[in-house]
Each structure stands twice: as structure tokens, then as C-alpha cells.
Amino acid sequence: MTDEETPTEDSPAGEALTGQPDPTEVPGPRRRRRGLRLLTALGVLAAVGGAAAAGAGLRDDGSGTASEERRPPATAEVTRQTLQDSRTEDGELGYGSSTTASSRVPGTVTRLPDAGERITRGEALYRVDDEPVVLLYGAVPAYRELKPGAEGRDVEQLERNLKALGHDGFTVDDTYTEATAEAVRQWQEDLGLAETGTVAPGRVVFAPAAVRVDALDTEEGAATAPGQKILSYTATAQAVTVELDTADRRLAEPGTKVGVELPDGTRVDGRVSEVMTEVDPGSGAADDGPTTVVKVIVALDGTKAQKAAASYVLASVDVEFTAGEREDVLTVPVAALVALDRGGFGVEVVAADGGTSYVPVETGLFADGRVEISGDGIAAGTTVGMPA
């Protein structure tokens, strides 16, 4: 096609591109070149898959039937199948996102764990002036001093930990009573701390569960002060991190099930556990400015998946996302779609005697070069026209 023949939305070929009739054109039957479909550049963007479908289209000539000389140059069969809008992306097997633990008290770092070490409830995450900063479980960060009279979710969180560590004599609720203070004194005695009955915010670090030390940000013997980074930690279960373009955000909704292929070819089940949007500042060059990426954390569900991944500390893996699925539907190659003069799409059905007719269809999911269709007379095994 020359520049003069390039279709626009105001031309007949441009009408084919949009799938809408030209309101300025006088209605009437259209002819086509022998063996050539007018719609040679039909672009169908599937909203669920972003898949572009380029096919040829032939307009209804008014009778709904194509003549002998207009038989399609190729054919395909309507098939019944499960259609999936899926995408495979590169991922990094590790332990998911990391969290920084910063000092809340001044002093000297006297003990640090090893990178990769596992710390559980009640154990020291690190020590300052030879006193432990203790890991406890909970979602609310330590942000204030806890003492008799305090009320709130953080109080109940502390009491649940005290109960789990074997201390009793108090009711687990959101009120810090004298009974709670007595349990705290028992706990402080076990840790070798001054038995004050009060918990300073710098004495504990709350995390959802046991942690794995990811990296150290200081060293033993170094001075520390409030706000200084001590170390970073992750969850103990292995997970996969995937970076997606913002246009592919639809692939990763929290809770979505995915498939993960490990380096040895083993396939395990995963689940999207966290989705974060991050800005990469880039290098600052004109052609490498800030970009926005979607960071997805995929949890490996179940003992089987964790066991299969256990031999890989860090590794590249393939993650298959499925954004849409339609079971037991009729499909044709996307290129079989034609745009009809009266609007919408159809297929050119080829009869046993060689005759053809144009049947309007409703389109559904687009995936892997095929499209879900439905319409009168459309069934598995139906032969439809295709471009050469």
C-alpha cells in the first residue's frame, strides 16, 4: 500500500480499522478484489490480554452469501477448548521484600546475628550495651512506652507474646494493668534486664512471624544512635520477586494463583501475596529517566513448594500469570474475524458444498492468537474462512 493509499478513519479502509461504518457514506453493497479481503489490517486489542489480532475482513454483500469466486483462500475449524490469557515473566527466587531494623536507643552494638540466621519470638535480634533487643510477633510497630494505664492494639499484641512465652496472671486484652506489669517483670528477669514492669519502644521489634537476617548495616563495636540502621530481615519462607510494567498490573492481584518453574524444571504453585508500585529514578540521563515498576511478591504455598525450592538460596525462575480463563468455549484464530458493514464482527462460514455465508459473532477472551466466539450456527467443527 502506498502513502496515498494509507487508510484513515475517514476512508473505507479506515472504517475497517475501527470496525465502525462511515456515517457520510451512502449505504449499499460493496465489492472486493478477487481473493483479497478488504480488512487487511484489522487490529483488535483485547482488553484482558493486550493481544493485537491482525486479520482480514469481508463485508456482508447484502445477501449474506459469498459467490463461487469469493471463496476464502484458506480455512480453519472452530474448536472447543479452555482459553487462558497468560503471561510468563522472569522472577528471582529469594525471601521476598526486606525490612530494616533501626536502633531506638544510643549505645554500642555488642552482638549481631549472622546473615541468614533465623530469629524467632523471644530471641535477641541484636544487643546494645550487652542488653537484648527482642523479637516479638505482631503487626503494630513498637512506637511508645508501654506501662500501666496504657490501652490499645499494641498492648494486646504485647500480652499475646507474653502468654506465648509462658507468662500468665493477666488477661489478654487491650489494657495494660498491674497484672500485665508483673508479667513484664518476670519476662525482664528472664532476659537479665532491669525489672521495671515497663517496656521501652527500643527494647522490642515486632514482626509478623519469625525472621531471617538478610543483611547487616553496622558491625559489632560500632556506636549507634536512634534512627541508625542495624540490619535488615525478611520472612523465613522462600518467595519470588517479579517486576512488571505498569501496563501489566492486571496480571497480579493479591491472592491470584500462579505457576512457578524452578531452575531444574520442577513446577510448583505460588500465590501473589504482595503488590507494590515503585519508582526507579534511573541514571539521570535524558534517555534514562525515572520509570515506574510494579513489584510483585509471590509466596510459594505449601510444604511441597518450599521443599522443592529449598536447595536454591537465590535463583532465576519463570512465573506464569493467568489474567483470565474461559473453560469449554468455542474459539477460532483471531485472523478469522471479519468486520461487518452493519457493525460488530463475524466469521465467514464455509458450508459442505463450498458455499459461504457471513455469521455475526460475539467475541470474548483473546489469548494465544485465538478468540472466544459465540453466534447462531457456530459449533465445534464449523469451517470458517481465513486469509491466505
From TrEMBL:
Entry GO terms, CC: cell envelope
* Principal location class: other
Q: Where is this region: Disordered?
A: 1-34, 52-111
- Regions of biased composition (Polar residues) lie at 96-105
Q: Where is the composition biased (Basic and acidic residues)?
A: 58-72
PANTHER family named in the record: BLL5650 PROTEIN, EFFLUX SYSTEM COMPONENT YKNX-RELATED
Q: Any keyword Transmembrane?
A: yes
Q: Which residues cross the membrane?
A: 38-58
**Source species, please?**
Streptomyces davaonensis (strain DSM 101723 / JCM 4913 / KCC S-0913 / 768)
Its keywords, alphabetically, are: Coiled coil, Membrane, Transmembrane, Transmembrane helix
Residues folding into a coiled coil are none
What is the annotated localization of this protein? Cell envelope
* Location of the Peptidoglycan binding-like domain: 152-199
Q: What is this protein called?
A: Peptidoglycan binding-like domain-containing protein
